[in-house]
Amino acid sequence: ATEGKEETPAAESNPSRGSQGKAGDRSSVLYSAGQFFFEYLVVVSLKTMSDGHYEPKISYQFPKRENLLKGQKEEEERLLKAIPLFCFPDGNNCAPVTEFTSETFSFVLTNVDGSRKIGYCRRLLPAGRGTRLPEVFCIISCLGCFGLFSKILDEVEKRRQISMAVIYPFMQGLRESPFPAPGKTVTIKSFIPESGTELIELTRPVDAHLEHVEFQALLQRLSPQLILHIFASAVLERRLIFLAEELSVLSQCIHAVAALLYPFTWAHTYIPVVPECLLDTVCCPTPFMVGIQMRHLERVLDQPMEEALLVDLCEGKILRAVGDEEEILPAKLQNEVLTSLNRHNNNNNVQTSEQVNALVSEAFVQFFVRLVGHYASHIKWGKSGQGTFQERAFCKAIASKTNRKFVKKFVKTNMFSLFIEEAEKSRIPQEGKW
């Protein structure tokens, strides 16, 4: 979950891997098919230090990299140094136990060039007797697809119960398989002693931009009205702090909030679970979206913070706000989104998470379409094929005063600028995004 630009690990610069993506090009990093599924699988264990406290350390790494160039080696070292912190952001609050319900969560590491790597984690208790400490299996990938990696972690956990040695061939098979295109399936053969050869099918959802999202997690904890206040703050790139005790709740809800901005991308500090040693992130004057465990609430409130929105995901309420959240979005459009979300909430038909994702996403995409969907007709194309966005004409074309007032603020955001930068490069209309 790091997202400061300075101390974050750089991505491996492997030319055969395809583009790592530039700052405005994040989505291509997360969704291109044919890439490796993952870069590393690491196991992070808690080691007891001489003063009695626990420190997370990598106890297993696959693959081990040989013959790295100097720059690549430094990048790898930075990456491997950061991972344990995010696998155990609550390191010293862990204790040996006899029973533990395994937990799935994820974090994000931002590279210097703005590209992102995702750490998919499964915290579980190693097989054995008596009290023992949990360990975390973490898969590092450039690809955003939470459902798919949860399934891979299920397979890893199943093999862990037999022996670490059975995990290796499975991960090797996965590494040799190309990442499937949206809607497609890849089949991995895997041999398990005493069970024989298994065929594991991994399918990507058709709608690639919803692969990393569980909107249900947000709807279960927050009212539609609160979700809109959070969305309004995110759209204007403010500071957002989410609080919950469980790592899985924090990571699911924050990924869901970031996904509400589609087809735009949150381009600032983004840490779904902040490790204790990075709690002063909340003092940043720049925009951020972070998740903090509830046990640190007092410490967070004591920090000298700029204005921020503080959301309690346990109680489903806002603890601190700027105060204007209700007035940010144009009222008519806000009510339309609210109606869609309430319709979902009052719908007693049991819906799959894919259906919920599609309904919620559609409501917010329509919000953007109604406000800024006319952007393409305000890009003036030069002979060289380079486009120039005509901001004044674009804003003037909006008939409604309240809509125009909002859009004038929105066009100043980093996420809108990045989106337009991409659009100016490509004469092919971006309709696919909407």
TrEMBL record:
The keyword Ribonucleoprotein does not apply. Residues 39-430 form the UDENN domain. GO terms for cellular component: cytosol; nucleoplasm. Pfam families: dDENN, DENN, uDENN. Residues 1-24 are annotated as: Disordered. Keywords: Guanine-nucleotide releasing factor. GO terms for molecular function: guanyl-nucleotide exchange factor activity. This is DEN2D protein.
